[in-house]
Amino acid sequence: MHELALCEAIADVVKSHADGQHVDVVRVRIGALRQVVPESLSFCWSMVRDFADMPEAELELESVTAAVQCRSCGHDSEITSQWSLLCPRCDSADVAVLRGNEFLVTSLDVSDREPQQTQKE
Ligand SMILES: [Zn+2]
Prior knowledge:
Layout: H1 2-18, E1 22-31, H2 38-51, E2 58-64, E3 66-70, E4 76-79, E5 95-99, E6 103-111
Parallel strand pairs: 1-2
Antiparallel strand pairs: 1-6, 3-4, 3-5
Helix pairs in contact: 1-2
This protein binds zinc ion.
């Protein structure tokens, strides 16, 4: 499953940055060309975060629209269709993607709570 693999990648990044701190919020930027279904991503995250030992980490998605530069007419355009990468102005397929392939963890909210260690009785 596409979204599951993405969530596992997110969890890996978060773990390496959180350094044992309690994670409250994970912000992820995803370009339209990734064709991620937000509902699926949220669903997969709810499973992955438990395995990753951060069950309270909320996922916040920031969607980035795709944009292309057309080599035929030279125009920069935002792509509104999710399934086609033609220049909206002249319908040429000879385009360079300017953005829309993003997939990155942009920031984390962590709290100062002590990392959970061995319990003292
Ligand atoms: Zn064009």
